[in-house]
Specification:
single chain, about 325 residues, alpha/beta, Rossmann fold, two-stranded antiparallel sheet, globular, binds S-adenosylmethionine
Length: about 325
């Protein structure tokens, strides 16, 4: 089964400078790198140098909103000195353009990038594409085509809370994260994560681990053991809060995702020392979490605001990124 639309494969992409070779930045340790430019152009070279190296590719592309998204200058945190800027006083800058000729152009651009990303994955690797319910069904069919239906692993629903709206509809309070394995045969990298037990389970069973009591071939009942329970294995509906307006991690970059969301993906799908790739890096959430968890990281973005925000964010965490030839000199 394939998706078709008029002019498939011929539409323009969102690339600002499609042919310019991206600028490369790297940490002195060589554990992190960043490419500033169009991701499809960057992937043409990375397909040769990084083939089979990534354990996780996470993509958070623009959501087909039909508008230009602006970054909002950061208000000072309460413990920082100087005046706190509020609302309209904060400077705004265009960060990225999410206007498209039509949905076909959007899917063409995204599909060609997913195709170029697939060869970067190791056999145990996963790709996670973050979309919303307006496009998730199209993107899923596209990914089934590129990876094969048997490589579809999960649809994670990220559920968050937001201010109630008065629209005559069920308010949208979730995004969709589609996970594909690169190979249906190779054992995937996967570490089970646990969530706390539900209040009703705690009330009935306490904090002890449950063990199934099997009679004949059937599970007859459960018994509680002395061993403390780790919780319940994490399912595919994730309750993770949006970033609070005054949270320390907030950068002002539009559409910034919470570190807690990326932390779940990176902990579950990679090991320490593995490479995590984010070709729509934005404010660098994936890179910052990967660095904190001891993973190697590679980010790509064509927005100057994204480049500045990510470099500042990583530098504050002790991972300064230098223009590549300078960092190569520092390492030698
Ligand atoms: C939704 S934002 C990513 C936000 C990010 N996950 C975060 O937490 O900050 C999408 C990003 O993709 C970038 N982008 C869009 N098209 C691109 C392209 N063709 N090449 C490189 N970057 C692109 C935009 O500049 C923007 O920063």
């Amino acid at each position: 089964m394939t998706l078709s639309w008029p002019g498939r494969g011929t539409a323009s992409s969102s690339a600002k400078t499609p042919n310019a070779e991206p600028e490369r930045f790297a940490t002195a340790s060589g554990h992190g790198e960043l490419h500033f430019g169009d991701n499809l152009t960057a992937l043409a070279s990375l397909g040769k140098t990084h083939r089979g190296r990534a354990s996780l590719v996470y993509l958070d592309p623009p959501f087909l909103t039909g508008r230009v998204h602006q970054a909002i200058g950061r208000a000072k945190a309460p413990d920082e000195s100087g005046p706190r800027l509020l609302g309209a006083a904060r400077p705004r800058r265009d960060a990225f353009d999410d206007r498209w000729e039509d949905r076909g152009a959007y899917l063409d651009a995204l599909g060609s990038r997913i195709e170029a990303l697939k060869p970067l994955l190791a056999d145990h690797g996963s790709m996670v594409v973050h979309v919303d319910p307006k496009t998730s069904h199209y993107v899923k069919v596209l990914c089934d085509e590129i990876f094969g239906e048997d490589c579809f692993a999960s649809e994670i629903v990220w559920r968050y809370r937001r201010w109630p709206s008065k629209t005559p509809n069920f308010q949208r309070v979730h995004d969709v994260l589609l996970r594909y394995r690169v190979s249906a045969k190779a054992p995937p990298r996967f570490t089970t994560l646990f969530e706390p037990l539900a209040a009703s389970t705690l009330a009935t069973w306490g904090t002890g681990k449950q063990r199934a009591v099997v009679e004949g071939k059937r599970r007859a009942r459960s018994s509680t053991t002395e061993e403390p329970s780790q919780g319940v294995p994490l399912g595919d509906v994730w309750d993770v809060g949006l970033i609070a307006p005054v949270a320390r991690e907030r950068t002002g970059y539009p559409s910034q995702k919470p570190e807690a969301l990326l932390e779940r993906l990176i902990r579950a799908l990679t090991h320490e020392g593995d490479l995590v790739v984010d070709p729509y890096m934005g404010s660098g959430t994936t890179l910052a979490v990967a660095a904190r968890l001891g993973r190697r990281f590679l980010g790509i973005d064509q927005s100057e605001v994204a480049l500045e925000t990510t470099r500042a964010r990583l530098a504050a965490a002790g991972h300064e990124l230098f223009a590549a030839d300078a960092s190569e000199r520092a390492a030698s």
